[in-house]
Design a protein that fits this description.
globular
Length: 579
């Protein structure tokens, strides 16, 4: 993210009315001091989002979403925080001092600059005489000049041309090897990619981190060769075309997920730009988080073969478990979306997308694979699979409709089917109850800590009370957040929650801070109320000290040391009585 100074961010935020900005995206109505509207961050049918003109923050009382003017834009438009600041700055007529489109990561600046140079080298190769064969190949594949340029496609040559150039630029062999650009064995060096079409791979922020390379000459080499896993190129955190597709996804409120890079390139080239490709046929936690940030419906459209069908089922289960809104497209005729568009055109593809089916409908067909439903055993297996497949859905109507359909289609007692599903649901419910209990255990003490931190973000008076009456939280994560709040006050001499939210963007504790803000309902608090909260923490600290001393006394064999520990414990008990 481009770095914009805190003072500049605060100036922009203070120049913008959060009510004016949010009301340009959703309808707000005033009730008392605050404004209310239908929350855009969850399925909302009545106004549950409150917007405070005075505090310059918003809060949804249903889903807990909250923040300042920048975080609203960031989440509503699916843009980065820096882009949100730029949008608000444009609204209020303020020029920003940095180029927010320039992605920066000082830690890997040298590596990113190197990868950009390599990208330009491969692109430039297409313009040479030797690159004419690669250009002809791309044109034969139906890739026009604009598409080649949009996807920064290039080509690599043999004779270690890349290494020779980078070596002259004094790049260290170890760095080139670590980034997957060269192979080094027994002091012999060679380019990893030779005589291949080069497709750059970008991370979610749009920085080049690796390449997919396709063979285009007649030889025995593997068809595709990818950059090895490096500290820049982590396959499990990348989605091909993500950075390029974000704007189209925002406009369409829909994302098409395909299997191969060429599938994504083909859809994009015919104007279907809200598309990304998987880096495999599974999803990692990082990729799931990246997809969740887009806040849109997914259309899963994988290859039209048995492997693609199995991958659709497995990915569908993952998406369902993570509560995604998604549908399925299974193409017929051609093996993948790339070939389908070449043969049938854009309109036929759009028709398939328009008629996407539910995941439940897909599963009803999937479970029939290789089964003879006239055979009693196959039919029993099929019905068990369908019922098992219903366990992850929270849609009661879908469950009822599916069971009724099974009952009608195969003349099976609805009560038996319902009973079978009930057994599965009961197992899941027991698991949920255990999880809920473990969640409750964390409550009272941590809740008080979070309340103190929440109110410290609102008032320098509360910060001073914290410093005088407590000074430090026993738990590390709360101690770190409190330190940031105190630092902020020391540096800027004032604090308000809207500005502190912006400040939190640039620190590692952002998620923890926003979780506290989202979980707290602001109730007016007096100094006496804050003192009560701080006293509760002090009591907890003293109680823990007494507990630890009891254990020490129990294990101490030296009589004199044992007396000293008891005396110390007695002293702390007196202090506890006076709190």
């Amino acid at each position: 993210m481009a770095f914009i100074g805190t003072d500049e961010i605060n100036k922009i935020r203070n120049s913008a009315s959060i009510v004016d900005v949010i009301s340009s995206y959703i309808i707000l109505n005033q009730h008392g001091k605050n404004y209310f509207g239908v929350c855009p961050f969850h399925e909302d049918h009545s106004p549950s989002m409150s917007v405070s003109e005075e505090k310059q923050i918003y809060k949804c009382f249903s889903c807990g979403a909250s923040g300042n003017v920048f975080t609203f834009i960031e989440n509503f438009l699916n843009v980065s925080f820096a882009e949100a600041v730029q949008i608000v700055a444009n609204m209020v007529g303020i020029s920003i001092s940095v180029d927010i489109n320039k992605k920066s990561n000082p830690k890997y600046e040298k590596e990113y600059n190197l990868m950009n140079f390599v990208l330009k080298f491969y692109q430039n190769n297409l313009n040479t005489q030797e690159g004419s064969k690669a250009v002809s190949y791309l044109k034969e594949r139906g890739l026009l000049e604009n598409t080649i340029k949009d996807f920064e496609i290039g080509c690599s040559f043999d004779k270690n041309m890349l290494y020779n150039i980078l070596n002259k630029k004094d790049y260290d062999d170890k760095l080139l090897n670590d980034l997957g650009l060269i192979n080094k064995f027994d002091n012999k060096v060679s380019d990893v990619f030779q005589n291949r079409i080069m497709f750059p791979i970008h991370n979610l922020d749009g920085q080049v981190v690796g390449f997919t390379a396709r063979c285009y000459l007649n030889n025995d080499n593997p068809k595709y060769l990818n950059t090895k896993e490096t500290y820049l190129f982590k396959k499990g955190s990348i989605l091909f075309n993500y950075h390029r597709a974000k704007e189209a996804i925002r406009l369409n409120k829909e994302l098409i997920v395909v299997e191969g890079n060429m599938d994504a390139i083909r859809l994009y080239s015919v104007g279907i730009k809200n598309v990304i490709a998987l880096m495999g046929t599974s999803l990692t936690k990082d990729q799931i988080e990246g997809l969740k940030k887009l806040k849109c419906k997914l259309i899963l459209m994988l290859d039209n073969d048995n492997a693609g069908e199995t991958a659709t089922y497995n990915l569908g289960n993952m998406l369902e478990e993570n509560n995604f809104n998604f549908q399925i497209v299974r193409l017929s005729g051609e093996k993948d979306p790339d070939e389908y568009i070449i043969k049938n055109g854009k309109e036929a593809m759009l028709e398939n997308i328009k008629n996407a089916i539910s995941y439940n409908e897909f599963k009803l067909n999937y479970f029939k694979r290789n089964k003879n439903l006239n055979d009693a055993n196959d039919l029993a297996e099929y019905i068990k699979a369908v019922i098992e497949g219903l366990k992850n859905t929270n849609d009661a109507i879908l469950r009822e409709v599916t069971l009724q359909k099974l009952s009608n289609d195969y003349n099976i007692s609805y009560a038996v089917l319902k009973s079978q599903l009930g057994e599965i649901k009961n197992i899941n419910t027991k698991k949920i109850i255990v999880d809920e209990k473990s969640e409750i255990k964390k409550s009272s003490y941590e809740k008080i800590c979070e309340s103190i931190l929440f109110y410290m973000m609102h008032s320098k008076d509360f910060i001073k009370l914290y410093q005088i009456k407590l000074g430090v939280f026993p738990l590390k994560k709360y101690r770190a957040i409190a330190n940031e709040i105190v630092y902020y006050l020391d540096k800027y001499k004032t604090i308000n929650i809207a500005d502190f939210i912006s400040y939190a963007e640039n620190i590692d504790l952002k998620d923890e801070i926003m979780a506290i803000i989202n979980s707290e309902d602001e109730i007016p608090l007096t100094d006496e109320g804050m003192l009560d909260l701080l006293e509760n923490i002090n009591k907890k600290i003293k109680q823990d000290e007494i507990k630890n001393l009891k254990n020490e006394v129990k294990n101490e064999v030296d009589v004199i040391k044992k007396r000293q520990l008891i005396a110390k414990m007695t002293e702390i008990k007196k202090e506890l009585e006076n709190i």
